From TrEMBL:
Ranges in coiled-coil conformation: none
Signal sequence coordinates: none
Keyword set, alphabetical order: Oxidoreductase
InterPro entries named among the record's database cross-references: NAD(P)-bd_dom_sf (IPR036291)
Gene3D superfamilies linked: NAD(P)-binding Rossmann-like Domain
Native organism: Roridomyces roridus
Protein name: Short-chain dehydrogenase
Superkingdom per UniProt: Eukaryota
Family designation: Belongs to the short-chain dehydrogenases/reductases (SDR) family.
Example of a GO MF term: oxidoreductase activity
Length: 134
């Protein structure tokens, strides 16, 4: 779970830094689609972990009584569609979106730190051997 959290943090930091660096009108967001019940959750190792957390039943189906944030595929897609098309976001580039709304208040403070975002951007460019300009 630590690697997942680090990847989500990097996603948020990258979106914020890309929004800051863009010299053209560019809407960039990090989006939380939620916990969507799909075939990606079917491998036995994943199912075993979800059973330990008690968020799926022994048969692998979602346990809505223990976990009220399961989403269907259309529900999970909704925030991405919101990010792509909702005009109210035109001045919110770099924001974190959850449940079809700006949710910057829900994130850890380090994911909003401009110094950390710039360091991650620079490190990414160094690792890839590529400078990104807009």
């Amino acid at each position: 779970m630590t690697a997942y959290m680090q990847a989500k943090s990097a996603n948020m930091l990258t979106a914020r830094e890309m929004a800051r660096r863009a010299k053209v009108k560019l809407d960039v967001f990090s989006v939380n689609p939620g916990l969507i019940y799909t075939n990606l959750l079917q491998p036995e190792a994943v199912q075993a972990y979800l059973r330990i957390l008690d968020i799926v039943h022994p048969d692998g189906s979602p346990n809505h009584e223990k976990c009220d944030f399961w989403k269907t595929i259309p529900q999970g897609a909704a925030t991405t569609v919101f990010a792509a098309f909702d005009p109210q976001l035109s001045d919110a580039s770099g924001a974190y979106l959850d449940n079809c709304q700006i949710a910057d208040h829900k994130v850890a403070s380090h994911t909003s730190d401009p110094v950390v975002a710039e360091k991650l951007w620079t490190l990414t460019e160094e690792i890839l051997g590529e400078k990104f300009t807009f």
